[in-house]
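Provenance

Sequences were taken from public entries as deposited. Structures were produced by running a predictor on each sequence independently, with no templates supplied. The record for Large ribosomal subunit protein bL28 from Biomaibacter acetigenes is shown for reference.
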Amino acid sequence: MAKCEICGKLPRKGIQLSHSHIRSKRVWAPNIRRVKVNVNGTIKRISICTRCLRSGKVQRAQ
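Predicted structure for Large ribosomal subunit protein bL28:
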């Protein structure tokens, strides 16, 4: 599932509105990456959004 395990960001649903005002449903998915991170000294593989990864909320394992 496209969910960030740090901030809990989920896909957002809405409508796409064309120039002729035809409405169609669409989904905005967060940019999720599966990376190895350091969690309390142990290395775990978690799903994390790139916003949390870029802001330094977790320490990436080497």
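The chain is about 10% helix and 50% strand.
The chain has a mean pLDDT of 94.
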